[in-house]
């Protein structure tokens, strides 16, 4: 199950962060997402690891923490997408697929002329679309 | 890198060293206590040897040298595993103490929270961690599974005072008193012993000591005994320059000088003895033991045979022992011996030997499942690898293996696991693998919350040190550790960690985390009673609009609680609640510009400028050219800052926004001002009521006290969730000087005073009234020169309606008052919309409205003459003798007419001069602004067509539509104004208005004839410019004297402006032939809309520049019979017609009349020129009069289409029988007659429009204004139906 998805701007400012749990753990998830930025930075700035996949947007598993797994995705405009999940075995293809759709949704949201770049995404349509994507996570490749 | 120089290496060289067990008699201790320490303490400083040179030869033949060496001294009673509970308490104490210490340091600079410095300090790992870690390692000491803590030697000390010293020596090493390690066989009790006789020189008896010594030597052997004389300094206590015991000072009482009775000789003696002990006894002893053990080990374990044997033997043992600790090994067992061999070798720094032995024993333990021992050996292997600086991977693998094995043991291995972890971490740190070290720290965190807190904190520092530094993880782990500290009530540590974490989150937009951190720091500070700091942190989180409502309530509630606890109102700079919208800030002040209403203030300055341009002399001069303008501005910058007048309020509009979802009460909103009596800014004798530095809270408190030099207003309000309020604050200076507005202060919930400095770096600040100087420093805008009181006019317009129907005509009264005793003079006034508002005369005050409009007072004809002249001036000057002073107001009439529907802003500017010449301000203007909403009322339109009965007569159709929704009007009077026009009704009014009212939405039409009376008096018309008109009453029963006179004052003036206005939109087709109409209507009292406060009395609707001569200057009329009887059997019929022509232009016209006979193709209708005849037949609903559609639009005129029913085909043709073309020259304003004749051959109805009229005007001699005029034209004949009947 996806616990949380987040969009983080290129200045590491949160643009959108949404948890999908009932529990009141917003703070924890904020921390997890925030910490994951360190790993993203590390991946990006470490040429050894990112050498062969220079144009790869998908960053893969960033780090496991407690019982979560954190995945990352970096767009060409240095916007980061973070996915926090509780699933034990996650297929890489699923995550890639998720990020691709998520990216598409994000692009649509920021293409809105009323969206101010660098400001939080408040679009309701975007939120709805993200929650659909989140709900369908894991089913797409199985089907 | 030399491993020995790393922190871990240093630590190992210090910690893993031979242990010497010290056993002493009480009298020895007594002697030492004189100096303030124990025997052991006395010896300790001399146990580490930094420049010795001892050759060591271990298993190999090659000797090597040791330059540094250290002994660890322990009392016999301490050689045992530390008590866990005691150790833990001790650790907790360490944490608490360091917490206090660090926190108090923190608090020193907490007074001025400077995160930057705090952070840079925290970047270095706090030193107490080292100490703490050492303590943690110590907790695992004296374990039976490792040999390096086992005493290598025993130092027995007996005082020369003791009785039977020899027996005391024996007693001391009594097995009963020995530590358990030696007793239960974990180690060899046969250890090296050294006998030391301590002689206290203060007690004398040096010869007794030497006697005992000789006795000892004979008993225990010469080399193993020595004598130590102490306390040689007999009387005077000695101050040692660099006290070797200083590092132990913490244990001793501070007032006593440590080692005060030891003189240099004593110290040297101690040194010698210890050095002797180590180099002559301990090291050789260890060497020897290593050699012995090595021989044994190689005899039993080395070689192929032994290995096989060992393997077989162990396998057989496997089934027997299966306890958790594995088998117990006593010191005789080969396993223990190998371990001892390894440890000795390690301590003597023969790492190769140590490693080989550890390797050997490691497999054995593993096979034996002696896990703890196995782990211990692995641990040592790791360290050995490290010290050898070989195979880093091996080292780490060993450490990890050991760590995991210890962890598997559970509680038993807890301390060892921690120690192993710490060593491992040190190893990783030494290799700069900080990230890995952090994860190890994370793994050390056991159940013990406090320990895990410390570990997490250390982990966080590791993240910070790692490259690239992972500051977010640093912050996260600090927060985690803070949480743990909080759980064990280590609030001070919690605060410290959170504060360090702050720097990570500071300036980021991760508001949830920020809020959490600030809130908890605030809470914790509050729990420590440090409310000031608490409040500072709490204020950071107040504007938490992103949080849920409950969180907001919690934050605000806690905040208020904390503030309450401080016990007084608390001042906070930049309190974020409510938010001040600084860009909305507006300063309103009145220098020479004064305002009658707030709306006047909001009007753009340039609008006023353009209005006042003519009145104010200096303005026009300044604008002469841009160069001059520039220089003047620069001058003004120095000489003239903003000016305000004593006693007159300077107002500031500020917008307050509540970002929260909860209601917040705000009270006592006032401005912070500074007033200095001197106008010169540089003088030092400023009398300050408050100070600019916002840190100095005290100054702001002073603000609340009464201040004599100015008055500030105070506003209270309450902001609901998300609400925005604009508040107007004012300050009224009472003394001449300089006034500066510094900021605003308010109270939140009555307890927290927030203040906001009007920062100087807001470029967007809009000072509405301030002249926009190019480079005026922003704070200039808040600085005012206060000048002495000068008169200020107050003005208002009485009874100006907010809403009016279009056409509404009213008399208003301008009321000007001057509350001061100084008179003002030279009043002028200008109004922005003279179409709506005109200035009356003083006499008008007496007039009764609307009666004054009627003809009754027509006698004041002079008014009418005078008024157009007045109108030509844009600025109205009040009579010279007008001066307003004191209580008596000046009343001046104004006329208001709602000209067109829409929202109208009326601006009135009144200029006046002050008689007091000495004042800085010579003149002032009063600006009034009113908004009037004009609703549509009657829609009036006229249609003029030439009458076919008489030339120069016109038929006028009036259409009136009531556009209101509920109002009823009485259409009262129609007046024509123009050049000698006369108007009369076609029908009696009763037939038009049976009900006399025009209901809402109703439309009527009525017809008038308009006659140009000028015809008879052509020569006179130029003599008078006075427009004379004629009036038609549309209400039957009214007497003639209630007719409104169009020449009366307001009407004629308004008409003038209407003409001006409508001229723009309409093309002037020649001034001679236009007519203006004024329709007067009255609302019916019965149905007055209650929404209008004051019902209108009279409404006038002006329609101007209606042209009568739309087709050109020539008008004509065909005159002849309409019906004719003729006997066609006799002959065809000849009919004579006459055409009357009239030239209404001011020049001679050349007219040519062409008659066109029937041509077969198109019938008798002319098809060549269809423009005129094809004019749409609009029967009703024509509202606007446009010149293009005029001539033919007379279908429902009195000549009611007689031939409509006739089929055109049936009409027989006729022929023009007169001359086919006639040319005449028509003089200006003259008429002529042209005879025409037609021949008709059969009875029928004929349309006699088959002719064309061509006219031409000379183009020379006309003014430029007539450029647009037509100079020639062609007119199609109009329909004229003639019916010819067969006579019987």
UniProtKB/TrEMBL annotation, chain A:
Gene3D superfamilies in the cross-refs: 3.30.450.70
Matches recorded under CDD domains: TRAPPC2L
A biological process from GO: endoplasmic reticulum to Golgi vesicle-mediated transport
InterPro entries: Longin-like_dom_sf, Sedlin, TRAPPC2L
Any single GO CC term annotated in Swiss-Prot or TrEMBL for this entry: TRAPP complex
Cited SUPFAM superfamilies: SNARE-like
Family: Belongs to the TRAPP small subunits family. Sedlin subfamily.
Protein name: Trafficking protein particle complex subunit 2-like protein
Lineage: Eukaryota, Viridiplantae, Streptophyta, Embryophyta, Tracheophyta
TrEMBL record, chain B:
Protein name as annotated: Trafficking protein particle complex protein
Domain TPPC8 first Ig-like per the UniProt entry, residue ranges: 604-764
UniProt cross-references to InterPro entries, sorted A to Z: Ig_TPPC8_1st, Ig_TPPC8_2nd, Ig_TPPC8_C, TPR-like_helical_dom_sf, TRAPP_III_complex_Trs85
Gene name of the encoded protein: 25499493
Domain TPPC8 second Ig-like: 807-926
Organism name: Medicago truncatula
One annotated Gene Ontology cellular component of this protein: TRAPPIII protein complex
Domain of life: Eukaryota
Domain TPPC8 C-terminal Ig-like: 1121-1250
PANTHER family named among the record's database cross-references: TRAFFICKING PROTEIN PARTICLE COMPLEX SUBUNIT 8 (PTHR12975:SF6), TRANSPORT PROTEIN TRAPP (PTHR12975)
Pfam families the UniProt entry points to: Ig_TPPC8_1st, Ig_TPPC8_2nd, Ig_TPPC8_C, TRAPPC-Trs85
């Amino acid at each position: 199950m996806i616990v949380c998805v987040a969009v983080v701007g290129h200045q590491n400012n949160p643009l959108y962060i949404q948890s999908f749990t009932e529990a009141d753990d917003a703070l924890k998830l904020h921390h997890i997402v925030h910490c994951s930025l360190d790993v993203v930075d590390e991946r990006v700035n470490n040429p050894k690891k990112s050498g062969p996949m220079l144009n790869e947007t998908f960053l893969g598993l960033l780090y496991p923490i407690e019982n979560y797994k954190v995945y990352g995705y970096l767009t060409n405009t240095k916007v980061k997408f973070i996915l926090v999940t509780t699933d034990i075995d996650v297929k890489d293809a699923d995550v890639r697929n998720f990020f691709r759709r998520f990216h598409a949704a994000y692009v649509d949201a920021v293409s809105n002329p009323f969206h101010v770049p660098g400001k939080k995404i408040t679009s309701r349509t975007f939120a709805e679309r993200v929650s659909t994507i989140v709900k369908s996570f894991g089913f797409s490749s199985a089907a | 890198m030399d491993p020995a120089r790393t922190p871990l290496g240093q630590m190992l060289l210090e910690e893993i060293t031979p242990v010497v067990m010290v056993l002493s008699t009480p009298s020895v201790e007594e002697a030492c206590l004189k100096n303030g320490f124990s025997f052991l303490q006395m010896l300790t400083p001399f146990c580490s040897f930094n420049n010795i040179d001892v050759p060591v030869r271990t298993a190999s033949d090659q000797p090597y040298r040791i330059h540094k060496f250290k002994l660890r001294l322990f009392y016999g009673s301490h050689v045992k595993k530390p008590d866990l509970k005691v150790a833990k308490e001790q650790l907790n104490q360490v944490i608490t103490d360091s917490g206090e210490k660090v926190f108090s340091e923190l608090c020193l600079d907490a007074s001025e929270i400077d995160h930057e410095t705090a952070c840079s300090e925290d970047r270095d790992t706090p030193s107490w961690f080292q100490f703490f870690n050492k303590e943690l390692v110590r907790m695992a000491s004296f374990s039976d599974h490792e040999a390096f803590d086992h005493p290598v030697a025993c130092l027995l000390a007996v005082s020369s005072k003791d009785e039977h010293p020899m027996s005391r020596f024996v007693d001391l090493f009594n097995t009963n008193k020995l530590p358990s390690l030696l007793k239960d066989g974990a180690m060899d009790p046969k250890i090296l012993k050294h006998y030391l006789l301590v002689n206290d020189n203060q007690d004398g008896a040096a010869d007794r000591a030497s006697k005992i010594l000789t006795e000892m030597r004979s008993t225990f052997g010469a080399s193993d005994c020595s004598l130590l004389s102490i306390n040689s300094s007999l009387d005077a206590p000695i101050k040692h320059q660099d006290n070797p015991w200083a590092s132990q000072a913490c244990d001793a009482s501070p007032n006593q000088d440590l080692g005060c009775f030891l003189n240099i000789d004593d110290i040297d003696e101690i040194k010698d003895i210890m050095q002797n002990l180590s180099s002559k006894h301990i090291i050789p002893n260890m060497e020897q033991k290593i050699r012995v053990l090595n021989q044994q080990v190689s005899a039993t374990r080395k070689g192929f045979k032994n290995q096989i044997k060992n393997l077989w033997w162990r396998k057989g043992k496997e089934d027997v022992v299966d306890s958790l600790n594995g088998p117990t090994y006593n010191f005789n067992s080969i396993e223990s011996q190998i371990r001892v061999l390894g440890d000795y070798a390690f301590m003597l720094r023969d790492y190769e030997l140590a490693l080989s032995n550890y390797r050997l024993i490691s497999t054995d333990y593993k096979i034996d499942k002696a896990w703890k021992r196995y782990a211990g050996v692995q641990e040592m292997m790791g360290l050995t690898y490290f010290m050898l600086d070989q195979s880093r991977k091996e080292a780490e693998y060993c450490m990890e293996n050991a760590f995991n094995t210890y962890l598997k043991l559970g509680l038993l291995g807890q301390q060892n696991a921690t120690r192993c972890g710490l060593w491992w971490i040190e190893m990783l740190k030494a290799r700069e693998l900080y990230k890995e070290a952090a994860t190890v720290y994370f793994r050390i965190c056991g159940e013990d919350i406090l320990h895990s807190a410390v570990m997490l904190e250390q982990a966080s520092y590791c993240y910070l040190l790692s490259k690239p530094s992972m500051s977010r993880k640093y912050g996260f782990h600090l927060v985690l550790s803070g949480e743990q500290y909080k759980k064990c009530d280590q609030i001070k540590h919690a605060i410290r960690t959170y504060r360090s974490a702050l720097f990570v989150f500071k300036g980021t937009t991760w508001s949830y985390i920020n809020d959490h951190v600030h809130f908890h720091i605030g809470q914790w500070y509050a729990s420590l009673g440090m409310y000031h700091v608490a409040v500072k942190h709490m204020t950071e989180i107040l504007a938490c609009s992103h949080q849920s409502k409950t969180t907001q309530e919690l934050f605000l509630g806690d905040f208020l609680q904390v503030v309450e606890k401080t016990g007084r109102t608390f001042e906070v700079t930049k309190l974020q609640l409510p938010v001040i919208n600084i860009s909305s800030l507006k300063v309103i002040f009145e220098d020479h510009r004064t305002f009658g209403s707030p709306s006047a203030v909001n009007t753009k300055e340039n609008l006023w400028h353009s209005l006042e341009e003519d009145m104010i002399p200096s303005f026009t001069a300044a604008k002469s050219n841009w160069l001059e303008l520039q220089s003047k501005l620069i001058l003004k910058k120095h000489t003239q800052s903003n000016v305000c007048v004593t006693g007159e309020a300077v107002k500031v509009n500020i917008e307050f926004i509540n970002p929260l979802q909860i209601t917040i009460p705000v009270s006592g909103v006032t401005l912070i001002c500074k007033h200095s009596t001197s106008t010169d800014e540089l003088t030092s004798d400023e009398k300050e009521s408050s100070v600019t530095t916002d840190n100095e809270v005290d100054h702001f408190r002073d603000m609340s006290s009464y201040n004599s030099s100015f008055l500030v207003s105070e506003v209270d309000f309450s902001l609901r969730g998300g609400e925005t309020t604009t508040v107007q604050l004012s300050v009224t200076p009472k003394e001449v000087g300089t006034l500066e507005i510094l900021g605003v202060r308010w109270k939140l919930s009555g307890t927290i005073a927030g203040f906001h400095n009007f920062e100087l770096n807001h470029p967007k600040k809009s000072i509405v009234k301030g002249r926009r100087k190019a480079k005026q420093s922003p704070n200039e805008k808040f600085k005012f020169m206060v000048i002495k009181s000068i008169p200020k006019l107050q003005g208002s317009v009485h009874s100006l309606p907010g809403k009016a129907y279009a056409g509404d005509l009213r008399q208003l009264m301008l009321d000007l008052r001057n509350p001061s005793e100084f008179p003002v003079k030279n009043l002028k006034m200008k109004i922005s919309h003279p179409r709506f508002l005109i200035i009356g005369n003083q006499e008008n005050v007496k007039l009764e409205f609307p009666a004054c409009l009627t003809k009754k007072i027509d006698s004041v004809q002079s008014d009418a003459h005078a008024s157009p002249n007045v109108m030509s001036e844009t600025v109205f000057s009040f009579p010279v003798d007008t001066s307003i002073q004191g209580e008596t107001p000046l009343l001046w009439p104004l006329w208001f007419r709602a000209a067109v529907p829409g929202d109208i802003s009326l601006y009135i500017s009144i200029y006046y001069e002050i008689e007091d010449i000495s004042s800085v301000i010579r003149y002032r203007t009063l600006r009034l602004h009113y908004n009037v909403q004009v609703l549509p009322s009657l829609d009036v339109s006229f249609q003029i067509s030439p009458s076919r009965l008489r030339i120069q007569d016109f038929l006028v159709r009036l259409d009136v539509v009531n556009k209101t929704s509920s109002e009823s009007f009485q259409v009262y009077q129609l007046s024509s104004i123009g050049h000698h026009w006369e108007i009369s009704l076609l029908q009696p009014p009763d037939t038009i208005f049976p009900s006399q009212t025009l209901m809402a939405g109703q439309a009527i039409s009525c017809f008038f004839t308009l006659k140009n009376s000028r015809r008879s008096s052509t020569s006179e018309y130029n003599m008078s410019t006075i427009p004379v008109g004629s009036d038609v009453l549309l209400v039957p029963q009214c007497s003639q004297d209630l007719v409104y006179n169009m020449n009366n004052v307001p009407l004629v003036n308004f008409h003038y402006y209407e003409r001006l206005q409508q001229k723009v939109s309409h093309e002037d087709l020649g001034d001679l032939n236009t007519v203006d109409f004024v329709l007067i209507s009255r609302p019916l009292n019965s149905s007055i809309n209650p929404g209008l406060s004051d019902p209108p009395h009279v409404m006038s609707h002006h329609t101007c520049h209606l042209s009568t001569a739309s087709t050109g200057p020539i008008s004509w009329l065909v005159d002849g019979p309409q019906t004719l009887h003729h006997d066609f059997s006799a002959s065809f019929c000849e009919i004579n017609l006459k055409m009357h022509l009239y030239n209404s232009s001011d020049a001679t016209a050349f007219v040519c009349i062409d008659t066109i006979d029937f041509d077969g193709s198109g019938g008798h209708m002319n098809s060549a020129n269809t423009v005129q005849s094809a004019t749409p037949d609009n029967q009703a609903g024509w509202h606007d009069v446009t010149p293009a559609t005029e001539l033919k639009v007379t279908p429902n005129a009195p000549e009611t289409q007689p031939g409509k029913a006739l089929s055109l085909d049936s009409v027989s043709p006729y022929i023009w029988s007169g001359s086919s073309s006639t040319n005449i020259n028509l003089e200006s304003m003259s008429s002529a007659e042209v005879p025409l004749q037609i021949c008709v051959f059969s009875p029928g109805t004929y349309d006699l429009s088959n002719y064309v009229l061509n006219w031409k005007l000379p183009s020379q001699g006309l003014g430029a204004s007539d450029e647009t005029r037509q100079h020639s034209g062609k007119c199609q004949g109009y329909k004229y139906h003639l019916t010819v009947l067969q006579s019987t």
